[in-house]
């Protein structure tokens, strides 16, 4: 699985992100630049997901979260949405056994109710099969939005407390356990491809202190070496979390 050479010198482990999040952008434009249907870019982009997984295993990144399908993506042309659903189903059918063989855990984050029953079943089976794997946790955000995530957490907090709140305001630590991915470190690094400079409703709570890395490369063009460049940039930054340089 790990077959590409690296020119990046790996420093001490504390400079390796524990969690990388990726906004996979540019599939449609990659295809259009080649006079291909937009859907061809989504198919080609599956290999870049494999490259991201390979990169994470290579450098010891524990968690990878990818933005596969946002809650707003349903607004796209129907033929593109249909292709994305077929592709998602194909990946869940064909790729999960490979992930399991490589000791990779798969989780799907988002509102599943909009998906067909067969896709929901494949999601559940994939999670059950890989739940005890430990080399890497891959989180796929599907029908996910950061605002939905926060609202969902608030609603679950209310249900958890049986609608009975005391006079004290809700604190961050009250809500945090109900936010998606609350059981793993927040993303250290968030990568967006495709030349856009925004989060597009992705992990709004979780990326509060993430280092943001933007590249003009379209997602289907991303190779292991491109992720290495993002890592190199991450390692050059000083993360202060509100403190001064002297305090870090």
From TrEMBL:
GO annotation, cellular component aspect: cytosol
Function: Catalyzes the condensation of isopentenyl diphosphate (IPP) with allylic pyrophosphates generating different type of terpenoids.
Active site: 25, 73
The protein's name: Isoprenyl transferase
E.C. number(s) listed in UniProt: 2.5.1.-
Family assignment from sequence similarity: Belongs to the UPP synthase family.
The protein's required cofactors: Mg(2+)
Quaternary organization: Homodimer.
Residues annotated as binding substrate: 26-30, 38, 42, 70-72, 74, 76, 192, 198-200
Keyword Magnesium: yes
NCBIfam families: uppS
Keywords for this protein: Magnesium, Metal-binding, Transferase
Enzyme class name: transferase
Pfam families tied to this protein: Prenyltransf
GO molecular function, one term: magnesium ion binding
Cofactor binding, note field: Binds 2 magnesium ions per subunit.
Keyword field contains Metal-binding: yes
Residues that hold Mg(2+) according to the record: 25, 211
Originating organism: Taylorella asinigenitalis (strain MCE3)
Any one Gene Ontology BP term: polyprenol biosynthetic process
CDD domains: Cis_IPPS
Record-linked PROSITE patterns: UPP_SYNTHASE
């Amino acid at each position: 699985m790990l077959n590409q050479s690296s020119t990046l010198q790996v420093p001490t482990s504390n400079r390796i992100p524990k969690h990388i999040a990726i906004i996979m952008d540019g599939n449609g434009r990659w295809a259009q630049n080649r006079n291909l249907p937009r859907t061809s870019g989504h198919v080609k982009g599956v290999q870049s997901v494999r490259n991201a997984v390979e990169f994470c295993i290579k450098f010891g990144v524990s968690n990878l979260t990818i933005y596969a399908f946002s809650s707003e993506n349903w607004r796209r042309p129907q033929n593109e949405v249909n292709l994305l659903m077929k592709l998602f189903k194909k990946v869940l059918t064909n790729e999960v056994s490979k992930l399991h063989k490589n000791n990779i855990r798969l989780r799907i984050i988002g509102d599943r109710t909009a998906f067909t029953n067969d896709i929901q079943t494949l999601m559940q089976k994939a999670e059950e099969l890989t739940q005890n794997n430990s080399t890497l946790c891959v989180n796929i955000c599907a029908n996910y939005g950061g605002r939905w995530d926060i609202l969902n957490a608030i609603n679950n907090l209310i249900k958890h407390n049986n609608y009975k709140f005391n006079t004290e305001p809700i604190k961050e630590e009250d809500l945090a356990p109900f936010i998606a991915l609350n059981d793993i470190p927040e993303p250290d690094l968030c990568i967006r491809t495709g030349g856009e400079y925004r989060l597009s409703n992705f992990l709004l709570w979780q990326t509060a202190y993430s280092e943001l890395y933007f590249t003009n490369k379209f997602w289907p063009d991303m190779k292991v070496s491109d992720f290495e460049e993002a890592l190199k940039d991450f390692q050059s930054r000083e993360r202060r979390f509100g403190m001064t340089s002297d305090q870090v």
